[in-house]
């Protein structure tokens, strides 16, 4: 697949992986719709003198259904259609049993899972009608097991399974669904982690791998390889052995 002359949406484009992907794609002759809650942070990409892409920015909190509807309408009015949707917006919040708060769950699930669902609800109307389109969902290698009390891992597990089912149903409609499962990437979110993060990579490297995977029309993009292998091994561990392993990791 070529990205030249394509209309590409990126949510969560103001920071981290989304910003790195936006920066990389801005150097290609394409049309970009960059969506984020903090729209002012998108100006840096839009004003880059080296940019070749036609860039439009829109404010959008993906956890709010009305925001997504308005942003979708804006994108269609500007460019007529969206060829590739990179649904990247995500949040993570630390939660412990002693500070348990259902609002955290609503925020994390609302952004990481429902934020993707809300966008797909609009995208599918055009994709099914045109019998083409590409959906790229940014999940995580953290989708394989629970690593303590967290809403982040369940949100990504839900997203990965949802995208897998969607891929099966949309294949006959010539609609490509790509699941992206990164390991640890150096972002504002991971900077708040108080544990060792093996094989940490830069957002620019992550963006490079993701864009290459989209061009190759992969069904699954997961990286880095050492973390992929490690999480695969952890996923196969029996429950009792895994709990022993996890308990040691928390000491």
Features of the shown structure:
single chain; 251 residues; alpha/beta; Rossmann fold; 7-stranded parallel beta sheet
Report on the structure:
Strand 6, helix 6 (203-215) and strand 7 form a beta-alpha-beta unit. This protein has a single domain (7-249), classed as Rossmann fold, CATH 3.40.50.720. Helix content is 45%, strand content 16%. Helix 1 (16-25) packs across helix 6 (203-215). The protein has helices at residues 16-25, 43-46, 65-79, 102-130, 152-170, 203-215, 225-236, 239-249; strands spanning 7-11, 31-36, 54-59, 84-87, 133-138, 175-182, 220-223. The N and C termini lie far apart (47 Å). The model has no long low-confidence stretch (mean pLDDT 93). It has a seven-stranded parallel beta sheet with strand order 3-2-1-4-5-6-7, sandwiched between helices. It contains eight helices and seven strands; from the N terminus they run βαβαβαβαβαβαβαα. By secondary structure, it is an alpha/beta fold.
Number of strands: 7
Q: Specify the CATH homologous superfamily.
A: NAD(P)-binding Rossmann-like Domain
The largest sheet is:
7 strands, parallel
Count of helical stretches = 8
Average pLDDT rating: 93
* CATH topology group: Rossmann fold
Name the poorly predicted regions: none
Indicate the proportion of strand residues: 15-25%
